[in-house]
Specification:
The chain is of the alpha+beta class. It is built from five helices and 25 strands. The protein is flat, with a radius of gyration of 44 Å.
C-alpha cells in the first residue's frame, strides 16, 4: 500500500491530459479493491481462558464455562463468538457448535473422560469483516473419579415400557459384587432439578435387581439418565451410567379377539382388536404367524407382515387346517425402535377341539425310595426262603422250614416270611 501511494502521483503526472479524467476513477477503484483485499495481519486471536466444568448433581449434566481472552477485552467494533467441541460418549462422537455465550450445558458419561475444547472466533470491522478463528484452543480433560471396588459396576441395563403405561428397568450385578452389597438407582431428566432415587425397587432373592416406575411418569421423547451405584461392607461399588428415551422401549399388549371368517369365494378373513393403550393406531404394525396343514398332511409355516389389523387369504380345500396368531409393536414412523408383544392365543379354521392331555401321576422322590425299599425286602425274603430250603435238603429232609426262620430273621418278620415260604411250593432239587 505504501508503494502504491508513493508512485500514484507520478503515474497520474505522466498520463495524457485527455485521459486523466477517465483514468482517475478506474485507478481509485483499483486502489480501494486492493486495500479491501489486503489480509488483516495485525490482530492475533487468542483462545478463551479459565475453561472449567461444573457438576450440579444431575448425573453428568455439566455446565461448561470459560472467559473472554484478556487480550480482546478492549477490542471494539468486533463480534466475538466461540466454537465449542466436546466428546459425546453416549453417541461416541465429537459434537461441534458455535455460540455467543461463555457457558454451555451438555451431558457426559461420568464413567469416562470428559473432553472439551473451545476456540475464539473474531469477526467485524476490526478484521475487515473476515472471520478469524484462533489457531490455538483451550482444552480440558477430566478423568473419572477413581472410586469404588474395581469391576463391580452394573451391566445389561434394560428398560421395558409396558403398553406405554408402566416402565420397568432391570440390571445385572457384576460377579465381583460383594454379597453384602446394596445397589441403588438414581435418574434425572430435564424436568427435574436434581437426581431422584428409584420409587419402588424390584427384588430377586432379596437383592435389588431393578426399578418399577409405576405412579412416577417419565417424559417421552426426552433423554433420561440413570446411575446404578451401591455400597458394601468392603467399600462403595463402581457407578454405571446409562441413557435412553422410554418411547423406544415400548412393549405393547398382545392383540385380542382374533376372528376368522370364510367367504363364498374361498377367502379367509382374519381380523383382530388392537391392544389398549395411549398410542395411536397409526403407530402399530403386526406380524401374523400362519400354520397350514394341507389335505395331504403337508405342514407349512410362514410369517406375514401387516399394516392393518386384518388380513385376507385364499384357501383351496375345506379339509385344510389354517391356524393363526398375531403380535404387534410400534412402527418406525413413531419411534426409533420397539419391542414385539407376546403372541395372541392361536385360532384355527376349522375350529379344532382342545384335547386335554392325560396327566400321569407324578413320580416323587419319596415314592421312588419306597418302591426301592419294597423291592429289596421282597428280594431278601425270596432269597431267605431259597436258602432255607437248600439247608433243609442238606441236613434233615423232614425238618420244617418254619423251625429255621427264628434264627435267620427277626421275630417281626418271621410270620410274613413263613407265610410267603409256605404259600409257595419249594422245589428241593435246587442245584448249588
Amino acid at each position: 500500500m505504501i508503494f502504491f501511494l508513493q508512485f500514484f502521483p507520478l503515474f497520474v503526472r505522466f498520463l495524457p491530459m485527455a485521459n486523466r479524467s477517465g483514468a482517475l476513477p478506474l485507478l481509485m477503484l483499483i486502489f480501494l479493491t486492493w486495500r479491501g483485499g489486503m489480509p488483516c495481519c495485525a490482530i492475533t486471536v487468542d483462545p478463551p481462558e479459565d475453561l472449567a466444568v461444573l457438576d450440579s448433581g444431575r448425573l453428568g449434566r455439566l455446565e461448561i464455562v470459560w472467559r473472554l481472552p484478556s487480550s480482546l477485552m478492549n477490542m471494539t467494533k468486533c463480534q466475538l463468538q466461540y466454537q465449542l467441541e466436546y466428546f459425546n460418549a453416549y453417541k461416541n462422537k465429537w459434537e461441534v457448535l458455535r455460540t455467543l455465550s461463555t457457558t454451555y450445558s451438555a451431558q457426559f458419561d461420568l464413567s469416562k473422560d470428559v473432553q472439551v475444547k473451545v476456540f475464539t472466533i473474531l469477526n467485524g470491522e476490526c478484521t475487515n469483516n473476515k472471520m478469524i478463528k484462533s489457531k490455538d484452543y483451550s482444552e480440558l480433560v477430566v478423568k473419572p473419579p477413581n472410586t469404588g471396588i474395581w469391576d463391580t459396576e452394573a451391566t445389561d441395563f434394560t428398560c421395558m415400557y409396558h403398553n406405554m403405561e408402566n416402565l420397568e428397568c432391570i440390571w445385572t450385578s457384576s460377579q465381583r459384587t460383594p454379597a453384602s452389597a446394596q445397589q441403588n438407582l438414581f435418574f434425572w431428566h430435564r424436568l427435574l432439578e436434581q437426581a431422584v432415587e428409584c420409587p419402588s425397587y424390584i427384588f430377586s432373592g432379596g437383592v435389588r435387581k431393578g426399578c418399577n416406575f409405576t405412579g412416577k411418569p417419565l417424559p417421552e421423547f426426552s433423554d433420561i439418565y440413570f446411575c446404578v451405584n451401591g455400597s458394601s461392607s468392603k467399600g462403595p461399588l463402581k457407578p454405571a451410567y446409562f441413557s435412553l428415551q422410554i418411547q423406544n422401549h415400548v412393549k405393547t399388549a398382545a392383540p385380542d379377539k382374533l376372528n376368522l371368517q370364510t367367504r363364498p369365494d374361498r377367502h379367509l378373513e382374519i381380523s383382530w382388536e388392537n391392544p389398549a393403550g395411549k398410542f395411536s393406531v397409526d403407530c402399530l404394525e403386526w406380524e401374523v404367524r400362519h400354520h397350514h396343514v394341507g389335505a395331504d398332511g403337508t405342514i407349512s409355516s410362514k410369517q406375514i407382515h401387516a399394516r392393518n389389523p386384518s388380513l385376507t387369504l385364499t384357501f383351496n380345500n375345506s379339509s385344510e387346517i389354517n391356524c393363526f396368531k398375531v403380535r404387534s409393536r410400534l412402527n418406525s414412523y413413531c419411534v426409533d425402535k420397539s419391542i414385539w408383544s407376546d403372541w395372541s392365543p392361536e385360532t384355527c379354521h376349522p375350529e379344532m377341539k382342545n384335547i386335554e392331555p392325560t396327566v400321569e401321576p407324578e413320580m416323587t422322590l419319596v415314592s421312588v425310595y419306597l418302591y426301592i425299599a419294597v423291592a429289596i425286602v421282597a428280594i431278601l425274603m425270596v432269597s431267605l426262603c431259597v436258602w432255607a430250603a437248600i439247608n433243609m435238603r442238606k441236613s434233615k429232609p423232614g425238618k420244617k422250614v418254619d423251625s429255621l426262620l427264628p434264627k435267620l430273621i427277626p421275630k417281626t418278620l418271621t410270620l410274613g416270611v413263613s407265610k410267603i415260604c409256605s404259600s409257595k411250593k419249594i422245589t428241593t432239587d435246587v442245584m448249588v
